[in-house]
């Protein structure tokens, strides 16, 4: 295992953890950073597999709430409704992700120019939505109707194009359909658990024969870095967006996408 690869995995793991749950597209940041750092992963699996660190981070932060939810399922209709809403929202991505996995990994993941353009466009969309005078009707994620959850799940499918952002797509969709900013982010957290776990399992299965012992070591380093970075984000994001909204993330997307586009046009 080369020292350069170890440093690259550490840096990319930190990027994954810091960007997974904010609407800036962790996949876009990982693919662009990997491109400019010369980092290569069999089947582009690194960007997906280190998401397990971010999944465990959010599970650890929400462990008590998830445990209470599980224990109350047999007796509490509200808990059953919420779990069903998450599963309904997860379904579209599960179906489309499984069917289009090859195209996503071999075409979309290999197009840095597209990633930069989508980052920029998504930034302007996020700015527009953040400035709309929306009147929220839903403030509690456990009260989201199943129809609303399904529509948010459809928006999540847009994130299969790198640069869109899974959290960004779900948050924008939720806001446009009447949720407040805090609950939109929180629903995105909960929806991330089955979505990212499913993507991890599918990618691991598809690339099980392409990964070597060194690849596993590099992925483990990225996983640990992603876990600790994601812990910081998950603990602070809800309060941040409640006070400042999503405009800072929109501008970040526009800046990163523009810099990446400029670098690519120069031949880097």
UniProtKB/TrEMBL annotation:
GO terms for molecular function: undecaprenyl-diphosphatase activity. Its EC number is 3.6.1.27. It is found in: Cell membrane. Keywords: Antibiotic resistance, Cell membrane, Cell shape, Cell wall biogenesis/degradation, Hydrolase, Membrane, Peptidoglycan synthesis, Transmembrane, Transmembrane helix. It is an enzyme of class 3 (hydrolase). It is a multi-pass membrane protein. It holds the Pfam family BacA. It catalyses: di-trans,octa-cis-undecaprenyl diphosphate + H2O = di-trans,octa-cis-undecaprenyl phosphate + phosphate + H(+). Signal peptide: none annotated. The chain crosses the membrane at residues 49-70, 82-104, 110-129, 187-205, 217-238, 250-267. Bacitracin is thought to be involved in the inhibition of peptidoglycan synthesis by sequestering undecaprenyl diphosphate, thereby reducing the pool of lipid carrier available. PANTHER family: UNDECAPRENYL-DIPHOSPHATASE. Belongs to the UppP family. Catalyzes the dephosphorylation of undecaprenyl diphosphate (UPP). Confers resistance to bacitracin. This is Undecaprenyl-diphosphatase.
